[in-house]
Amino acid sequence: MRELEIRPLQADEIDRFVNLSYYAFSGRTPDERSTDFIRRITPERNVLVALEDGEIVSQVMIYEFGVWIDGVRYPTGGLANVATVPEKARRGYAHRLLREALAWMRNELGLSVSTLYPTVYPLYHGLGWAPGGDAVRYSGPPAAFHPSALLPDDHGGRIERRLARVEDVELLEPIYRAFARSRSGYLDRPRWYWEDNVLRLRRSTPPRWLALWYDAETQLAGYLLYTLNGRPLGDTPDAELSVYELISLQPESYRALLTFLSAHHLWRRIVLDSGRDVPVQSLVQNPHLLDVQVPVSGHFLFRIVDLEKALCSRSSVPPSQAASLTLQVRDEAAPWNNGTWRIGWDADRWICERAEGRAPDASVDIATLSALFCGSIDVRQAMNIGALRATADAADGLRALLTTAYPPYSRDHF
Question: At the top level of CATH, which class does the domain 306-402 belong to?
């Protein structure tokens, strides 16, 4: 193998990066990608490339996001546009580049965790990323979404329906944030994400509609973003009302917005993608009318980048008698995480410090620890499959540290 140089992308190399992204993933045109690129990131800070004989052979882009995990906003590296030229594929270039990206995220960007949407799952899982959450697809006739009679009703509330506009970010962002911040996996969306991915669609896609629910006090407390695909009562497979996002801050809002959905009786099918943090089957009058699917692909992966920084930022408060524990972590791709750590509660915060030479109370690999951290697996499940070994006391301590109020979910692809 020739000498491989890994370094940040230079400003005069943007076209080369964009062209490889377009070749690998198609979709947006090179001109659109160049415009988006300049708006969203800084080349020398957010892109790493691998070069052989002066030519870019592999690349990765790192979005600097915030992601909420159990009420805490973690500085996060969202990896995207990971691509290798096909004539140099399967030579380990992407593997080496991603290892460098882990160090870059920690040392240069100060990020504590990372998330991505994989095209090649084994590559990322082998480097410590773990499945972050399950998306559930609910579909059925409009009657399937008629709300449960147990949901409270606000008779003074009202719905405003109209086409969504780019400037609606100021209206929707506070409601979304209030909903998302106590949960796990949700993206703290930067403005460009709202504009480009949530509210502004490409010319080839249907317009996105917005239903806003105001309570009797005229406070906005929920919204529905959706598209109407095909024609009402049409026979084409894509003739459906597709819900992009359902956000509700009050149970009354769920009732009103589901009633609104169920009133679209001219549409043969409604499709709603959601996470397990929202108990959709408990919200509807007759869940037997729903077709429920759990796609395996398309979910985000999650990884701890800086173990000490991530664990010390946890917000969970342990029982008063919670004891400290010694945890052995295996992380070959990020050696600064590898080793033995003492973890405990000190006054008002979690501490995580090196404890080399001490016998561990628990042992885990970084992928399993990352899944535990975001809540996609719990301590008992990890122990049942042999991915975590822990004494009874250590298991209790890990539950106090890592249990999340909600299972993780994100629908924000990038």
Answer: alpha beta
